[in-house]
Amino acid sequence: MLKLFRFVLIFVSFCVSNNLYSQKLSISIYNSIPLSTILVTPTQGQYNLIIGDSTYNLKVNQILYLSRLGDSIVVRTANQILGTWKRVTIIGKTGNDVIRVKPIVPATPARLYDDNLSFYVDINKILAINLIDQEKYIAAVVEAEGGYHRNPEFYKVQAMLVRTYTLSHSNRHQSEGFNLCDEVHCQAYKGRSDNNSDILDAVLDTKGLIIVDSANHPITAAFHANCGGETANSGDVWVKPLPYLVSVHDKYCTSSPSARWQRTVPTKEWFKMLADFGVDTSTVLKRDDVDFDPSDRPVYYTVKGVKIPVKEIRKRFMLRSAWFSVSLGRKEVRLNGRGYGHGVGLCQDGAMVMADKGFSYDEIVKYYYKGVKIVDSGTLDSLQLSTDTLEIPREEPMGPMPKPDFMDQDHRNHKPNR
Ligand SMILES: [Zn+2]
Ligand SMILES: [Zn+2]
To answer: Could you tell me the distance, in angstroms and rounded to a whole number, from the CA of residue 185 to the centre of ligand 1?
Structure first.
């Protein structure tokens, strides 16, 4: 048993350190849930359950319960207890294996996963690791973030963004023994790609391809829903300027529904904000002092000589974007905004329109990221891949990947962008 345990450990660490070459990734699933009892059921393919020195065949639809007992896991079927182990491994045999995971305690919705699973206790919870083919994982993330019914060329772009992020962040949880978690901390991963064959095709069509800068380092592949007609400089939004994250004029996204937004804010609150930023509001005597109508994407909103960063105003009022005009009324301030999201990097609405107009993934990527190259990740060494990228704050109120009906939602509790 010890031998096997070691083998599994080596296998996992191999995946952590060499995922690029082994093309397997280890992802901690239900990462924030204190898993205590889990129901596991193969739904497709053929699985082996490996516990201790024993290997069991698992049939499709066979039920397996895993429950934490101290630092071990009790394994039982529908009618018998198989025993208690430190580690439980479930390995797919056909390359086309799917397994359902349903946390019972605490009760959490079930999800389907491709490939292999491994379970062990970490302090006081079961850690569930999905050992998955890298491209299947990328397809699942594209789907979790990218929604449905998009143009195949757009999916290729999205697949490269996800792959670029995945490869440059695969050491993120190395000290914990896996590559990435399934949360917004890394990338939202909600189980296998849901039968959307267009996404998997796009991922396989771009297999291994990532986006790099002029020094062959993976780029910070920031993207957002809609730029409103002009993307933002990374230095204006996140302090750090990057040569490929520079403002571009975007004529493709301006007819999309999320290109424009309106909001009103009580005048009192607006003045409170002005005062908080150091404006002496007693000197504001006329509308012109407050009104604002930028034709280009602004960085500051200036009132009485005080420069207020628009990104701070966006944060304070949870605005869809940091590009808006201001029109003062007696009771309310009217804001007319453009775009949705932080505005840095690739504009998804624009990229979708470009794809529909027949532009290739290469042309789309190079339209939004300046001076970049698309290369096969296999040609880069691990040092180039592990280069520091700009860590983008992921707690923004609006996510990068609105589903088609997102206009109805004011604040999406979704992962923000890169
Ligand atoms: Zn993470
Ligand atoms: Zn745009």
So the answer is: 4
Domain assignment present for residue 90? The answer is yes
Looking at all shown ligands, the one closest to residue 341's CA atom is 2
Single residue among 91, 108, 132 that ends a domain in this structure: 132
150-170 pLDDT, tens digit per residue, is: 889 999 999 999 999 999 888
Distance, CA 379 to ligand 1 centroid (Å)? 26
What's the confidence (pLDDT) of residue 92?
95
pLDDT of residue 150: 81
Q: What is the pLDDT confidence band of residue 248, given thresholds at 50, 70 and 90?
A: very high
For 58, the domain range is: 2-132
Asked if the structure places residue 317 within a domain, the reply is: yes
CA–CA separation, 313 and 269 (whole Å): 12
Which residues, 6 or more positions from 282, have their beta carbon under 8 angstroms from its beta carbon? none
The verdict on residue 314 lying in a domain is yes
In a domain, 219, yes or no: no
User: How many structural domains compose the chain?
Assistant: 2
Distance CA 333, CA 319 (A): 13
Which two tokens mark 234? 């990374």
Structure tokens that stand for 201 in this block: 């095709």
Residue 66 CA to ligand 1 centre (angstroms): 24
Does 45 have pLDDT greater than 70?
Answer: yes
List, in order, residues 6 or more apart from 175 with CB less than 8 Å away.
Answer: none
Which of 103, 132, 161 is a domain's end point?
132
What ligand has the least distance to the C-alpha of 349?
2
Neighbours of ion ligand 1 (CB under 5 A): 181, 185-186
Calculate mean pLDDT across residues 291-320: 96
Tens of pLDDT, residues 365-392: 999 999 999 999 988 876 666 655 566 6
